[in-house]
Amino acid sequence: MKLEDLGYNDNLEKFRIENNLDNFEIGRVIAEHKERYIVRVLSGEFEAEITGNMRFTAKGREDFPAVGDWVALATYDPDFAIIHKILPRFSTIQRQAVGQFGEIQIIATNIDYALLLQAIDRDFNINRLERYLTICNSSKVSPIIILTKTDLIDESKISEIVESIKTRIKNIPVIAISNITKDGYEPIEPLIEKGKTYCMLGSSGVGKSSLLNNLSGKTVMRTDTISQSTNRGKHITSHRELIILENGGILIDTPGMREVGIADTAEGLELTFDTIVKLSHNCKFKDCTHTNEIGCSVIEAVEKGEIDRDSYENYLKIEKEKAFFESTVAERRKKEKEFGKMFKNYKKDMKRNKY
To answer: What pTM was computed for the model?
Structure first.
């Protein structure tokens, strides 16, 4: 195996040379377990942790390694390696951390494509798809929508749902599949390119692990049987993990997400709801909230049926959530700055009193 098989490229090699990292091995984080990491290097896999200095200087979760990261590390034995540096990321998929206002959770890094999975029978929700798209657009990751469990509903219903997505969400591939019969798999396999990294996003039980197993041709992730009461297979992935497929594609499986919190996604919103954003430039007032103002081009378009009302309401909800997240981050940074200033003055006073 070569590092290029894991997605290594010329930009990363240039960074390695310019930063004098010759004394370290370069590897990719393929799994994370509570701040302990499994890193794949040329010679194999190592369990690793970060240096004390990295931990001490970290300003937030984004300063810690994540699945998909390229890192410089010193290896000692299979049970022990030390990560000294994270190489630059070209993309980061992240969301608002559950129950932690103003904090982010990194899902995966250095991702080329995101596979957005929804079960077509019960899990299907276009509003949630738009949330995933907002995260992808903010992260500069290309999305692909995959509808699973087509074996549980009839063809006419499948066509109706696919058409409803394409009407509301433009220019994004939509593929309907069955992990049981493998119907619909034909369009997926050509999309999986050697050396490219794909991250699967979706709720628990939508078939991410089954898709991974089918694409790899073997049981990589264990899945429990389908519940008779809910028609949902239990997805038991408990951590993020990077798998190399036989055709050279790189696939990251993730635990199911009950919440898709939006974190700092101004650009993501503009791309996901581009029609609404473009119309907003024609509003009478520059600070128009598109809720009740006279002369609002967005409201006018909704009333004329030019913009889907559900999409409009989802946009307002996500925009409000984004604004709250940004205000929470700003408040936290203000408090950190005040604490830093207080601590600095305290040190000065201690030094003055000493003499």
So the answer is: 0.80
